[in-house]
Amino acid sequence: MNSANAYHKPPTPDPYADDDDDELDLNELDPVATSRRAPVSHDYGLPLRPLRYGGRRRPREADTEDLGALIDGGDEARRDPGYGEEHEGLLPTANGSARRLSLDPGDSRARRKGISRFLPFTTTTPTSIALPSPTSDSDATTSRIVHVAAPKQTAPHTKYPPNTISNAKYTPWSFLPRTLWNEFKFFFNLYFLLVALSQIVPALRIGYLSTYVAPLAFVVSVTVGKEAVDDLGRRRRDRLANGEGYRVLRLVEGEDEVGGVTGGNKRKVGKTEARKRGKRRRVEGEGGGRVAEAEREEEMVEGLEMPSTRVTEVVKASKDLKVGDVIVLGKDERLPADVVILKSFSTEQITPAAMIETAEVESDTTLVETNDSPSSAPVNETTSDDPSAGGEAFIRTDQLDGETDWKLRLASPLVQNLPASEYGRLRVTAGKPDSKVNEFAGTIELLPKPRIHGQPYDPPIVKPSTRTSSHQAPLDPPSQEPKSSPLNIDNTAWANTVLASPTTVHALILYTGPQTRSALSTSASRSKTGLLEHEINSLTKILCALTATLSLVLVLLETFASPPTTSPTSDASGKGQKWFVAFTRFLILFSTIVPISLRVNLDMGKSVYAFLIQRDTGIPGTVVRTSTIPEDLGRVEFLLTDKTGTLTRNEMVMRRVHVGSVGYGGAEGMEEVGGIVGQVFGGGEGGRGGEGLWTPGQVGFGSGGAGQGTTRTRREIGARLRDLVVALAVCHNVTPTIEDAEGRQSTAYQASSPDEVAIVQWTEAVGLRLAHRDRKSISLQSTRDGRVVIKVEILHVFPFTSDSKRMGIVVRFLRHIPDDRKRAVEGDDEEGEIVFFQKGADTVMASIVAANDWLDEETGNMAREGLRTLVIGRKALSTTQYVAFSSAYTAAALTLSNRDAGMARVVKQHLETNLDLLGVTGVEDKLQPNVKSSLELLRNAGIKIWMLTGDKVETARCIAISSKLVPRNQPIHTITNLSTPSTALSALEPLHANPANTALLIDGSSLATYLTHHPRAFILTALTLPCLIASRCSPSQKAALATLIRAHSPSSHGARIAAIGDGGNDVSMICAADIGLGIEGKEGRQASLAADFSLTQFSHVTKLLLWHGRNSYTRSAKLALFVMHRGLIISVCQTVFSVASGYEPLALYRDWLLVGYATVYTMFPVFSLVLDRDVDEGVARLYPELYRELRLGRALGYGGFGVWVAVSVWQGVVVQGGSEFLVPGYLRGPSGGSTGNTGEVSAVAFRRMVMVSYTALILNEVLMVCSEITTWHPIMICSVLGTLGLYFGSFPFLGGYFDLAYLLELGFWWRVAAVTAASWGPVVVGKVIRRRVRPPSARKVRGV
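Predicted structure:
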């Protein structure tokens, strides 16, 4: 008894000392009915103390005592914290009920004021979560203390960002400012804005205001609308991803869901389900909620833990997940946020019905109540039966860092055996959000179990009959210090990784939304502008300068030509005003030189290109997410590609094995290997049919006559092949699992490397199956009869690392199965042989295995085929050798300085010397369909392909060779582990000797050195190479390379860069490139959602670039030139008319004539050029060299633009000058203020001249379109005929501009024909001559 309880009166004898508590008299428990003073409970005044402490009690784990729930009409009586196991002193209240005498100055009842002191059930119950102090986690950007969210914890962790994915470019409030800025930052849009605003000034107005404002508003509306549609599509796809449901554990305090007031004074006593011993009674009624309080106090006093909370499963959308939530993950589920793994257990050995039962649905949310009491907690089992193998899970990180190896993750040992009901006691301390995916440091703490209602802890009374079971550890007292355990990268899993193993994982969310590792490694989306836009912007500046120059010349000519006496004003100010107004009016008249319809036509053309791409059956599933840059598909110079999931399928297959003198490959070779293995382990005739297990000490090939009738050479080859298969079946880190697929069970393998899985699958295919593996042993079965033929004890494992490039294992072969181990004790079975197996890269294994004359040759042959080679060696160890190694290795593991180096040195000294070379294996990473031909086609098109992957150096090299990314005869210069800036430049010198025929292979650490210290020197060298391969490349490095290429490219606006990937680690690269290509595959859609074009496989890139890219660029270039030609020719006509009118700024074509010329009368034939093609698709693929010419930009270069300007000047002068010359009676200055007969004749002649000029202008433009079409389309024919019909059909409505009577005269028609022939004929003749003299490449390959 402690000092706090020493002064109390000893307890009176318990009248309920009888061992049987099955039948209880409720009157004995009623404080009104009983005459003896009984102590009351701590919360609701239940006098249960004598019942709990009197006499001999049964063990708590064996029996649950009967409890009664009583109704007390008076005030609550609360337990004094100073009281212990004995009776409490009670003071009678006014109504006769018992009330305690409080000795606690901090008693909550004493502090409460007013009527609340008399209300029942108003006791403040502290939550089971220790809330963080106000200053403990005040800054979310430095460090954070994360508590598991509790139901009474108000707004947990609300300061952290929501867990949402957003690929949208705009926000609702930034959409208009950003889109308008993107529009008017181009000169020609700004120019038209100024022209439209000038029409507000009456002195500058020419025609209707809508003539200039409406086209600009239409252009801006179309472009802004397209951006809105694209961004809404991104938001819609984001909404689908953010709405994905995840199971979340919700912690609910016990009293919240136990019992409650049902009304009345009735009591109902019922029996509960019998457990191990005894029975339990429960009273449901008005005081039903008190049962939980009585149970909780008794369990604390008994020293047995009561669950802190009840656990329910809530299905929440990904966007609703918060920091502190505990999510439940299963196999193949994607992690929605950065988490710490709390618990991992196998789903194979847990009955779901024992864990989860359906509960009531609350607020349209699926709830699943988990019966997570200590007696029914999930069994801690993983993929093996070995109790030491707890809390393991494998994750796939290829969507995060590009690595194909599965990563082993471990639950914290502090939490692995903790029931989920106690998660509320956990507190995790972690650092600030970081982009480093391979680093993490934190701490997890298990807080003491909270005391009920703030009472101090009373030590439990250990009764003679109470015993701690052997399987249950004694519980720590609640007053103990918090337990803590460190956390590292092995205890975490980042967002966008996938749980690969068939386990159920409980994980605590640490970072959400933009603070996750993947989000911090991803560049923000940016608005992309095509190269064609920049080129047109440059040409527009030239046209604007031409307009200003022409206007100034006309004003000066007017000034010099007009006599001084005719000046409207004689003062200088008057002349200055007239000069300015005339200049501005000329600028407005010539504004058609910079055609506003250019943007309308180009934007509509982009929509047509996007429609044609998505409707192409040759590239099914392709989606255009950004429709503003299709022309850039025809200008790509660099293609940055990921490896895993993009070039490869990440599916490994064993292709070849070689045992020195014989190699096996193909179906026939593997069948022969299976026959040899079957003779040794298959059982039956010629196999191992007897008892016992196979060990290396059994000499000879097979047993039971398996080698009879074979030559010595064949027996040696068979024995060597047998040893190789055994080594491959033992030396790995693969664990077999049982999976249910459509009601059928199958064996699956999980490992950190797909190479190892492929090898183990191959050993199963040839007859030796991995049946069981845990941390202590490995069992192998024969596939013929299912018998265990090999069982080894694992002594040491040396895992593969990127530095060592090898993996080893020390095992002891057992002679008999464990059930028959008695033989070994009896002496007929000695300890099995101890063998060290090792496999690794040929570069490191060559110096470890014994001398041979074939290893280098065979590994070279396999490498040239693109196979991933592994060299396998073996060394038998005697007991003395193993004891010596084990002692030295243990001593090295205990050192504090240079531990890893010391352990590696011991392994090298004792094990890695003179290993027997067993053989070489070649594993192929399956490529995506048609990858080899696609890469070759793109390379012939002049596109430089850089492979940026997060995988290992050796893997990147093999894929580069197998995919023909690097031709066989092309040397690969390798730079790895370069960390010294002083030697970085010298490492690049070998590339300068032959840059056109050398590829560069560089790892991530070396690349970081160059990007930090010598970015310019590195990128200028890399730009000259045909190929670059970067391994261990982080997402930020991928984006940095794309930015450097564009910044240092010799092109005027930077080389066009396309980036293609399929994972979340490729999003930064996709966003940084000019063209983002995302592959939507089985590994997720994040790259596809962030990309500009979504594909289903890599081979579709060739058609997208070589065909659709070519068409989009050539069509847009031709369309832009025609639209500018259309504006130039009408401006030249206006210039000729102004000169003929005495340099007056008078309009030749007004209002509808000006608008109709740029729209309904010429738009459809000109716009139909978006359907033209200069070559067929087969020719474009047959001659990929045609793509090289597109990158030069000649289709819209300054040379071609100058030719079109000259053509426009010629045709404008001929059309307007010829019309004025040929129309009879036309007087100069017809719109002057003259009156009388002369003025009337001049007005008629003016209308006739305009009629001839305008008609010839329309016909000239239509004929120019016809002469430029290469391949006619039915829509083109309809547009030409329809436009001509529309124009001539609209004559009756043009009486305000034309002299309609002149239409019936023959003179009108021959004058129109003469002017049109004079303007169009010489241009066509010149075009034919130029095509004969210097035909373009497209005409050469077409043979026309």
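Summary: The first strand starts at residue 90 and ends at 92.
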